[in-house]
């Protein structure tokens, strides 16, 4: 996770194109200027970034389902819950699930867990539109490669495509 | 159309916290009810789920922006409900 660049997703753990779900690993860095202010002597990942982490996993799933032909932008977060503190060095596993893929928007559910314990969850609405700049699509494709997004067809991937058996050794 | 309208009106009332009695078939979702594009996403989501359809919001918006259609054609509720009925009929055809 590179907080200052809003690079939240470190690794795809599992992609299921048929179930339209994605599981990602998001590693909170040990150090960041953010922790100097949030908070002195008691570093916590800001709650708003937990929403961003969930939104990015939702976006990664949506882009993959649309084969990167459209960009997704965060439109709303409903029923958002921040259940416990998240601290430097922890690994947040986010599970994102498509609820409804509409015309120009999508509704997804997401939840984040640390060592199996639920730390955050929300319903996320993303607006979709053609990429407003070609370099943005290139950046997202580079990101997909960086995080190990499986890029085959459903038939090639099977019903569930592990990125690498769920371990974090390649992060 | 009447049952479609009842469903849509109830969705709008619940989603946007608009008194149900203020919502009529003649209401324009944007001009009369003050529904903005973000709220309309929630409405579209609920309509899609309720009727098992996919409102073609993007193409409607494009048609309006290009002057090929008016907002009344899609966002006056009786017209919206007629479109929904068409989509339901097309789905079951």
From TrEMBL, chain A:
InterPro entries: FabA_FabZ (IPR013114), HotDog_dom_sf (IPR029069). The keyword Zinc-finger does not apply. Keywords: Lyase. The keyword Lyase applies. It holds the Pfam family FabA. GO terms for molecular function: lyase activity. This is 3-hydroxyacyl-ACP dehydratase.
TrEMBL record, chain B:
Keywords: Fatty acid biosynthesis, Fatty acid metabolism, Lipid biosynthesis, Lipid metabolism, Phosphopantetheine, Phosphoprotein. Gene3D superfamilies: ACP-like. GO terms for cellular component: cytosol; membrane. One of its GO terms (biological process) is lipid A biosynthetic process. It comes from the Bacteria. Coiled coil: none annotated. Residues 2-88 form the Carrier domain. Pathway: Glycolipid biosynthesis; KDO(2)-lipid A biosynthesis. One of its GO terms (molecular function) is acyl binding. This is Acyl carrier protein AcpXL. The gene is acpP_1.
């Amino acid at each position: 996770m590179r907080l200052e660049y809003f690079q939240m997703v470190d690794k795809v753990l599992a992609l299921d194109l048929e179930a339209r779900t994605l599981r990602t690993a998001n590693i909170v860095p040990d150090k960041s200027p953010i922790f100097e202010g949030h908070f002195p002597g008691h570093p916590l990942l800001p709650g708003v970034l937990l929403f961003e982490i969930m939104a990015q996993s939702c976006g990664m799933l949506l882009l993959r389902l649309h084969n990167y032909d459209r960009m997704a932008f965060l439109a709303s977060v409903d029923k958002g819950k921040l259940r416990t503190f998240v601290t430097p060095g922890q690994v947040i596993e986010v599970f994102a699930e498509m609820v409804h893929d509409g015309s120009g928007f999508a509704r997804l559910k997401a939840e984040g867990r640390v060592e199996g314990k639920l730390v955050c969850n929300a319903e996320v609405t993303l607006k979709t539109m053609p990429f407003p700049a070609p370099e943005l699509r290139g950046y997202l494709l580079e990101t997909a490669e960086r995080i190990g997004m499986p890029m085959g067809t459903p038939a090639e991937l099977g019903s569930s495509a592990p990125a690498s058996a769920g371990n974090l050794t390649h992060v | 159309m009447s049952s479609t309208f009842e469903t849509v009106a109830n969705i709008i009332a619940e989603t946007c916290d608009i008194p149900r009695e203020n919502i009529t078939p003649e209401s324009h979702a944007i001009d009369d009810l003050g529904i903005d594009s973000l709220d309309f996403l929630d409405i579209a989501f609920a309509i899609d789920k309720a009727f098992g359809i996919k409102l073609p919001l993007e193409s409607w918006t494009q048609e309006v922006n290009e002057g090929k259609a008016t907002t009344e054609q899609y966002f006056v509720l009786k017209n919206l409900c007629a479109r929904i009925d068409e989509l339901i009929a097309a789905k079951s055809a």
